[in-house]
Every structure is written in structure tokens, then in C-alpha cells.
Amino acid sequence: MVTAVLFVNQATPTTITQFHDMIMNQLPETLPPWEFELGIFLNNKYSKPLNLDSKQIPNRYLYTLQLSYLNDEERGNRMISIINNNKSVVTSVPNSTHIINRLESFTTKGLNYYREKDESVNDKAESIEKDFVGTKLKGEHEVIDPEGDITMNGEKETEIVDLQNGSKTGSKTGSDLEIEDDLIMNRFEENSLDEMRRRKKLLKHIQNGCCNNLSVQTNENLEFMLVSKLQSLWTLKQTVRGQGGVGYIINVELEEGNSVGASQDGKKARAQEKFRLRTSNCLLHGTFKGFLIEIEHLDQDMERIEIDNELKNISETERKNRLILRFSRSISMIKSLIETYKFPNGNLCFNVLSESKLDYLSDLCQQYCDALQF
């Protein structure tokens, strides 16, 4: 997936409205609302070590980007960070609400199960006593059972069948089988009950906030750590926020931007292309700074190439050439989309961290950093 970010500086309400109307005319698939936050940190020059290697590039800028549409229940809130425009890392804060709900559900249901089981056992014991009040005795040892499967000495005989060959291996009395089943069930229930008690204690610790990132009251992501604990190394220069974000998925017919797709009569071939668009209003210190359009070309051939590169034994040179060709085509399709549908004029950024290997999140963060330079 190849992305690009178009930033329209000082866009007017009319420009934004016309753009959304134009997209809606294409009958797109709408996406949920979203927002973003870009933090720009400046390195403290006095914090550099004295024995710094002359070949080492000193740190200067650190960018952190949070995109709300990347958050989910399993991975939590993810943050993309880039330093010196050449290294990136993706960190995540676990979804505390999701974890606590799972702990509460497991613990509560389990403890309720054992409470209900204790009550049902007591009720069953009382009913058994009532059933055997009217039991008739024959002689001194014989007990009449309604089903007729209890012997003269009051013990139920059971034949054990070998499951592999179907042969009879012997017999055990009903009381012996019940004792073995009870031992197995008691061990299992003891382990389950101990696990529930352990999770109940863990849940109390989390709710009290003694575990970082797992308490409802805490939200300690990487940016929080930079601001609160690494102030001597990094200083927050500015924070750009995106609000009122909407998203679309559109299918449009575009002309191929290169000569390879040209037909024999000289006309350029047309192809059906799919894009994911996200727009947002950019604010700096509460002041509107511009209109941002995130464009993602959903190229299925690019995904196939990435899969083929992993499965097939392709040389490094050939792999890079194939990647560059598909990347160039995707950028050409993005430019063709902007030109065909007359997007607002702005700064189009499509730089990537590494030309030899694309990374969706890292490249997207790099493009946000390039576009939002005020």
C-alpha cells in the first residue's frame, strides 16, 4: 500500500465543502470518524555525550504520530515515532478497558458458577434423601432400584470397554468410578478456583493503578514518558492536532500515467483504481492551519509482489526494481486522481524512509512530518 499526504495551507470553508461534495458524487463507501495528533520534539544540544563518535549523526528531531483509526481492542492505542527521519518504531498502550473487562468477566462468571454449583449440590442432596425414603428392601442386603441395574449387595457393576479394539477389559464398580471422577473434578476445580482468585487479586491491583498502562486512570504512552521523564533530552516544540476527520473508499477510472499502458492508437489505457481517502482539519494551538488529505492507493498487485518476494527466491536487485516500478505507478495514480478530480492545490508529500523496503506506518508518519511543517 502506497500513501501520500496532501496539505492545503489556509484552506477556506468553501474549498473544504466543495471537495467533500465532489467525493460524495462518486458514491463512496464512508469510513468512521477519526483524528490524529503529531508531536514534534527538539533534542537538547547540551545533553549530547562528550565521547560522541564523529561518524555518528547527532539526534535533532523526534516526531510522534497517533492515528485514532489504528487503535483496536487487541493492540490498544498505537503510536508511530521517527527520529532523524531515518529510524522509526511503533509502540502501543494496551487497551485497559478491554483487559479489565476480560478479567472481570472471567472472574465473576467463574465465581458465580461455583456458588450456583454449591447451591445445586445442596438441593440435589435433599432431593436424593426424599427419593430414597420410599425405597423397599428385600431380605437384608437386596435393594430394589427403579431402573433395575443395582446388584444384591447395592453396588452397580460396570464393564470397561477398550476403545481401541472394542474388547471388554474388566469391570469396576460404580462407586470406584465415581471416586476417580470426583478426584479428577476436584483437582480441576481447585486449579480453576485458584486461578480465579489470582485474577481477582490482579484485577484489584490494576484498578488501584499500580500497573502502568493498565489502569483506567493512566494513559502513559511514549509521548507522556518523553514529556514527564525525558525532559532533559527532548523538548516538546509543538503539537498539531487533526479534528473532524472523515474517510472514504472510492473506485474511479483513471488513465495510466506511463507509456507502458498506452494502446496502439496512441491513447492511454484506462484502469479502474481503488483509493482510501481521509480528511481532517489541522489545528495548532487551537488555530486552524489547513486542510489535510491522506491518500492511500489500494494496489492489489503491490500486495502480490510483497507476497511473491517472500515466497520466491528473487534476487535483491530484481526485488528492488519490481518494488520501484509498482511504487512509481501508485504515485502516478495518486497524481492522476488529484488532477482528474481537481483536488485543492497544496503540498503533496510522498517521501519514504527507505526506497528499498516500504513500511506502511513509518512512511505514513514521514509524510505527515513533511506536510505539517509550519
Automatic annotation (TrEMBL):
A Pfam family of this chain: Med20
One GO CC annotation: mediator complex
One GO-annotated biological process of the protein: regulation of transcription by RNA polymerase II
Alphabetized GO MF terms: transcription coregulator activity
InterPro entries: Mediator_Med20
Location(s), subcellular: Nucleus
Assembly description: Component of the Mediator complex.
Similarity comment: Belongs to the Mediator complex subunit 20 family.
Protein name per its UniProtKB record: Mediator of RNA polymerase II transcription subunit 20
Organism field: Pichia membranifaciens NRRL Y-2026
Highest classification ranks of the organism: Eukaryota, Fungi, Dikarya, Ascomycota, Saccharomycotina
